[in-house]
Amino acid sequence: MRNSKTDLSIKPKNTILATGSSPFKLPIEGSELPGVITSKELLEITTLPASITIVGGGVIGMEFAFIMKSFGVSVTVIEYQDDILSILDEDVVDVILNAAMRKKYQCNYRCMCKKNSKNH
Prior knowledge:
With 120 residues, this protein is α/β, with parallel strands linked by helices. The chain has a single domain (15-108), classed as FAD/NAD(P)-binding domain. The chain has 3 helices and 5 strands; from the N terminus they run ββαβαβαβ. It has a 5-stranded parallel sheet. The two termini are 15 Å apart. The mean pLDDT is 79.
């Protein structure tokens, strides 16, 4: 993950590709590896992971972030845009972002996910 302020490598065991209301796999190297699922596949899991990285800070991604956090899962959100929920009113985004920060979400903005690695 890289933006103007950081060059960081995250090696999540579980990742959600939250790309919108019609889930699809992004053309990211490693997106076919076990543990990388779409938001639709997340609805079918039977056990909760200890942590999860959600690629996509839109409505679907943030919904799942709040759901997973409410179940005690550690959540990291990676978003390419300047902020989460970029299509919503700034006042609404501020309320949601403040709630996420109080719950200790890790949110990363202006980041491009280039590769998913099998090495955890």
